[in-house]
Amino acid sequence: MGAEEYVPYKDPRQPVDKRVKDLLQRMTLEEKIGQMVQLERANMTAEIMRKYHIGSLLSGGGSVPADRASPRQWVDMVNTFQKGSLSTRLGIPMIYGIDAVHGHNNVYKATIFPHNVGLGVTRQVHIRIGAATALEVRATGIPYAFAPCIAVCRDPRWGRCYESYSEDHKIVQMMTEIIPGLQGDVPANFQRGTPFVSGKLQLVPSTFVGDGGTVKGINENNTIVTQNELYSIHMPAYLNSLDKGVATVMVSYSSINGVKMHANRELVTRFLKRKLKFRGFVISDWQGIDRITSPPHKNYSYSILKSVNAGVDMVMVPYNYTEFINGLTDLVNKKAVRIQRIDDAVKRILRVKFAMGLFENPLADYSFADKLGCKEHREVAREAVRKSLVLLKNGKSAKSPVVPLPKKASKILVAGTHADNLGYQCGGWTIKWQGQEGNNLTAGTTILKGIQAAVDPTTKIVFKENPDTKYVKSQGFSHAIVVVGELPYAETAGDNLNLTLPYPGPEIINNVCGAVKCVVVIVSGRPLVVESYVPKIDALVAAWLPGSEGRGVADVLFGDHGFTGKLARTWFKRVDQLPMNVGDTHYDPLFPFGFGLETKPSN
Ligand code: BGC
């Protein structure tokens, strides 16, 4: 038996850069281009992974191996694809990515944390949320999460506003502390820009840059900014993320002053890679390069040319791989894309794969399966819910507070479309891309169930979604809790120019409040137009999109904990005021940024 040839890239004792260099010089153009491709898992096979040397796969929103798939089914799926990649000539493992934007949100029975709009309120370092999310993602065999979203939403008409922590970049910067939770702490001598992974997750701060500042909040649109606004509002959190070792950055669909980010060489290459010294890889958004042209995909060769030359390293294609591979191969052969650019992209991708130990541990096992949706994580989520609620009104004056409500009362009415609807309280990006209504989508506790569990056993809770006033008056209720709000949405489907409270929310408030002392809880991804209802409401709570742990709402309504949340967004009066953010000269909010009444625990 002859001695096996020593292959430096396979040797984990070698430094990462040496391994990258060794591997790169062994690769053909075809193998290099394959590394730059990310495909959606649907219709994918291990054979395609092998044949085209595909570098990465993803689950798009709602894309799962099977309905209600278990962690084992997820792990088996990821491993099957991985075996295809490992069977290639050079055995380069693929990297599997997924959006984990409020917990591992595509996965049945995962813990669903409040959306970022609620987490911003807590202003707390949610390292524990990051760590819990990382474990749940790992439980399904996935090493790569597209999170956190560090957009600074400057206009709540934007359908992705709830993915943003705040209108204030300082809060967004503070919340990047979720990153060490997701991927571990960087060592003391860490150099900014180097991809860092301590064996947990590798992360994308999606998405680069300025997507929270588009005109009228129109998704994927144009952000018109001065240099100063760009660097002082939208950019700072990227620096914090780089300091924390994020390994990948996703480019946003939007434009900056008319230049599509996917074609923005100035910002992607000159600024992010050269000036900030980012050494991880830049990934496109889903068909993001297609959208460089209008209509999308009009000239795909041009899209490939512009994006790769701008500095995009991995392309979320995500379906037509031959079109992308042939297109890029042509451009390289014609020298429209230089081979040095391809080498740079591949080096960055390989660097991340080596740094995260993927070559040594390419296959996942079942050892974290019991972490998915486990009790400890649900407790963290429940705590986050409590701290994310903002009490906007509490009685006619401070002398006559309505909350905390007594646990012992004869009869309490719970009303509203959102009181007993897990899907509504989780919002978009939950099981399905656009979210889903009802209580059958996944495991969790509705706000109603939380209330029922919180009160004294002798207190009668009556649930009626939309009761008429006569009924409300005749039943002898001591209080009513009305839970209303927005219906689930994600991305462009959530763009909304009027931001009114959806029907029948206003009707329910009118029927109940006035007939009995009422607490209104608003479940929404952003502030809504509520000024005209406030006088008839006795207590008003902004609950944002709390996720699977509805008990957190009852925890503060019934005084087991106090209200502490402070608005991380301006609660405007009318949409004609927008955009209106803290510090603006025309600032005239209904409730200002930073506002939030407090209560003391009563038990
Ligand atoms: C979204 C991204 C997401 C991608 C993959 C796109 O529509 O804009 O945030 O990462 O889909 O699911």
Automatic annotation (TrEMBL):
One matching Pfam family is Glyco_hydro_3
Any GO MF annotation of the entry: beta-glucosidase activity
UniProt entry tagged with the keyword Flavoprotein? no
Q: Which residues form the Glycoside hydrolase family 3 N-terminal domain?
A: 28-352
The cross-references to InterPro entries, in alphabetical order and at most eight, read: Cellulose_Degrad_GH3, GH, Glyco_hydro_3_C, Glyco_hydro_3_C_sf, Glyco_hydro_3_N, Glyco_hydro_3_N_sf
Gene Ontology terms: biological process: glucan catabolic process
- Write down the SUPFAM superfamilies for this protein, in alphabetical order: (Trans)glycosidases, Beta-D-glucan exohydrolase, C-terminal domain
Domain called Glycoside hydrolase family 3 C-terminal: residue spans: 389-598
Domain of life the protein comes from: Eukaryota
Q: Which UniProt keywords apply?
A: Glycosidase, Hydrolase
Return the protein name: Glycoside hydrolase family 3 N-terminal domain-containing protein
